[in-house]
Q: What sequence folds into this?
């Protein structure tokens, strides 16, 4: 079964680009989804099926998935983007989540 | 737009049964698949199980035997029960809607409840 790895934390300067990775062997063969979770709140879907943004999610959020790494990119990070970000995929009959990455906007 | 509101007992003693319910508004519980996910304090998300619109259910193997889910179409809600809880079950519990595509090989969760904190302590 899949085990997903994520960096514990990522820091990004205001207005710069944050890159959050989600790693597993051949993860690029599958579909990864990303959730944003602010303190004390429920997760919110920000990217689904590797590259798609739900309605209402800003264009500065984008995703990619290839080889052994899926990536969530925040272009032009804003203070409101400070949150934990979780990757997720479906492995046969189970949902698997990464451990989460805390993003800090400096 | 579908919204989920959940509730249930917040403080349990070890060996008791956890019971949570999720109310569906803006849609029908019969139209979608539903899931439960939890998050222990300071930790990541853990998938518990799913109940489909046809009321068939399947669970994370790590919970097998302790967990059950059900749907009440008359009340437009779905529920989770977890027996024999221990301190390790202390967590924020979330209900969510499942979106399924490509012949069941892709599932993700597009609408979440607000969460319910369950604490297990003697």
A:
């Amino acid at each position: 079964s899949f085990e997903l790895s994520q960096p514990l934390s990522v820091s990004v300067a205001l207005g710069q680009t944050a890159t959050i990775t989600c790693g597993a062997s051949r993860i690029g063969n599958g579909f990864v989804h990303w959730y944003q979770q602010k303190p004390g709140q429920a997760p919110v879907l920000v990217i689904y099926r590797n590259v798609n943004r739900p309605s209402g999610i800003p264009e500065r959020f984008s995703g990619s998935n290839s080889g052994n790494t899926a990536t969530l990119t925040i272009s032009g990070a804003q203070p409101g983007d400070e949150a934990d970000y979780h990757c997720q995929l479906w492995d046969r009959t189970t949902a698997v989540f990464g451990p989460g990455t805390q993003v800090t906007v400096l | 737009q579908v919204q989920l509101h959940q509730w249930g007992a917040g403080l349990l003693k070890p060996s008791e049964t956890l019971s949570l319910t999720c109310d569906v508004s803006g849609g029908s519980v019969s139209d979608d698949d539903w899931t439960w996910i939890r998050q222990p304090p300071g930790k990541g998300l853990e998938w518990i199980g799913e109940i489909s619109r046809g009321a068939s259910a399947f669970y994370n193997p790590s919970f097998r035997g302790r967990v059950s889910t059900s749907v009440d179409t008359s009340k437009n809600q779905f529920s989770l029960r977890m027996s024999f809880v221990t301190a390790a079950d202390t967590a924020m519990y979330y209900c969510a809607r499942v979106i399924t595509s490509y012949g069941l090989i892709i599932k993700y969760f597009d609408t979440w409840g607000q969460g319910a904190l369950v604490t297990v302590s003697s």
